[in-house]
Amino acid sequence: MASGPGGSGGGDDRSNTAIITRTRTRTKRPSLYRVLLLNDDYTPMEFVVLVVERFFNKSHEDAYQIMMHVHHNGVGECGVFTYEVAETKVTQVMDFARKHQHPLQCVMEKK
Ligand code: TYC
């Protein structure tokens, strides 16, 4: 006589009962961080535009607008990223500014 999977072949119903356990997948959205440029009196406008184009993938027009916003308001947002990406942007901008001996400051803040 054939006996199916989990079956005894002897008519024991309990041996054919499947138990499906499913744990709920808990998804947590990552915290987001703004990356900001700060104004100063010495960094050339064109350098700031280049930074915004290069590290924040903005068009020349958008980069110019962001630079002018920072120039007039003291601070401005270049983008919003997860923690590690924001941290990388800040490091890249600060390294690039230092390399060119400009005092440009870039910071991140939790949204
Ligand atoms: N204020 C600077 C100037 O007049 C230009 C500037 C803009 C500097 C934005 C920094 O994040 C900055 N040359």
UniProtKB/TrEMBL annotation:
InterPro entries for the chain: ClpS (IPR022935), ClpS_core (IPR003769), Ribosomal_bL12_C/ClpS-like (IPR014719)
Compositionally biased intervals (Gly residues): 1-10
Recorded GO MF terms: peptidase activity
Biological process per Gene Ontology, one example term: proteolysis
One protein family per Pfam: ClpS
SUPFAM superfamilies named in the record: ClpS-like
Keywords annotated in UniProt: Hydrolase, Protease
Domain called Adaptor protein ClpS core: residue spans: 28-106
Annotated region (Disordered), positions in chain: 1-23
HAMAP family found in the cross-reference section: ClpS
Assembly and binders: Binds to the N-terminal domain of the chaperone ClpA.
Function: Involved in the modulation of the specificity of the ClpAP-mediated ATP-dependent protein degradation.
Family named by the database record: Belongs to the ClpS family.
Protein name (database record): ATP-dependent Clp protease adapter protein ClpS
Gene name of this polypeptide: clpS
